[in-house]
Amino acid sequence: MRPSSHQSLLPVAGNLLRVLRHLEPYRHKEVRARLCTDVSQSDPRTAAVHAAAAEVGAWMRLLSNDATREHRLGRVARRLPPVIYWHRHGLSPEEIGRRLAPFGEACYGDRAIDGACTLIAALLNSRGARR
Prior knowledge:
Blueprint: H1 3-23, H2 28-35, H3 44-54, H4 56-60, H5 80-88, H6 93-100, H7 106-130
Helix pairs in contact: 2-7, 3-7, 5-7, 6-7
């Protein structure tokens, strides 16, 4: 191949990588990171995460019936929407844990954030499966 042929393939390869990245399923860690990212960066995955997080009713419906049991999320299960709001606005897991329980700790806040982000990721992935 001539050098110019390689150069003409680069945009095609770049577009293919973007398409494959878009098809990759969302993980709770990605959702957690993207919630703290500004939407104005025009990344479609970040915008999708923020849009899904705003649909509180949709992702809260995905909460299992036994989520309020202590081995799962406990009483925090009903307070996941404020947890996402606090996380989005930069509160630390320790501060979120204190807001959720009198002796709340960072692990309590982390558990709540991860639980909510898992639900948001599941919502996003279920929509991807329907396309």
